[in-house]
Structure formats: structure tokens, C-alpha cells
Amino acid sequence: MSDFLDALKDIGKELSDCLSNISVADALQAIEQLVLADRVFVGGVGRSGLAMRAFAMRLMHLGKPVHVVGDVTTPAITAKDLLILGSGSGSTSSLLLAANKARKLGCRIILITADPDSVIALVAETVVRIDAPTPKAESTSGNVSTQPMGSLFEQSLFILLDAFIMAMMPRLGETEETMFKKHANME
Fold first, then answer.
1. How far apart are CA 138 and CA 114, in angstroms?
2. What residue spans define the domains of the chain?
3. How confident is the model at residue 150 (pLDDT cuts 50, 70, 90)?
4. What is the pLDDT of residues 106-133, one digit of tens each?
5. Which of 14, 32, 138, 154 is catalytic?
């Protein structure tokens, strides 16, 4: 029981510390781009991909046209669209390919990563850094975590994206009630 309670306390402290180090200016820039975007395309792989898919769901609840990179129903991206990627390493090959393709088409790109010097960061206009250790990142601050692998990054990504949604709600005239009306009803 003590190990479990210690783990909960450690995770809570790590999340609080990690999230308090996010650049507010970078986050606000990302939120502004999301609010103004006609359509949003999201991408991520693995557990980061799950957080990005959850973000896509919330964007849909906000009434934003949103697509997940790689899904069979995802249309062609254009220069009018926004691509937002979540990648701890900032170098996931499939996401780099998507970012380079989007850049060639004139699309704006946001990257949320632990490595602000990564190859995808070089392609993105906006980079939001989550200062969390991840085994695949080349350049991190040296922060440590008691959690395995990239868990702190992935948890922080999920919470950061929820904060984006909460910040966007009043700007888009949305409330929990209006968002719930858009929730899936064929469950």
C-alpha cells in the first residue's frame, strides 16, 4: 500500500513541476493558432498518439473540424490548415514525414515535444516544450522522473492539451453544455 501511495504522490509532484515549466508564451501562441485554424490535423504515435487522439475528440466537441493524421477518412491537408504534432523525441519518422509534407504545402505546424532542438522542431513554426525526460529525445534538460520511460511527457501532454481546450472554450463561445451536445450519441 505504501508503494502505491508513494507512487501517486511522486506522479502528482512530477506533473505539477513539469507543467509549471511550460512556456506560457509558446502555449498562448499555439492556442491562438488553434482558435484561428479552419481545420486542425493532429498526429502522434504510441502513447503520445493516444493523447493527440483524445485532443482531436475535444476539438470536435468545440466544433472545430479536426482530423487524425493516418486515419482512413483524413482528407488532404492544405495551406489553410494547421498541423499539431505530439512527439516526445521530436524525431518520429512518420511525424517528420507528415511535417515536411505539410510544410511543402504551406501548412502551419505546431510541435509539442521534450526536445526543442529536434528535427521536427526545425520544421514547426511553434514549439511547445514539455520539460520531461523521454528515452528517445536527443536534447533534454536532464530532468529525471521516477516513472518509467516517457510517462511524464505523455501525461503532461494530455493535461496540456486539456488546458488548451479550456482556454479555447470562451474564445469559441463554447461551454460544457454546448460541447456535450456534440458528444457521440451512438454509444
1. 9
2. 2-180
3. confident
4. 999 999 999 999 999 999 999 999 998 8
5. 154
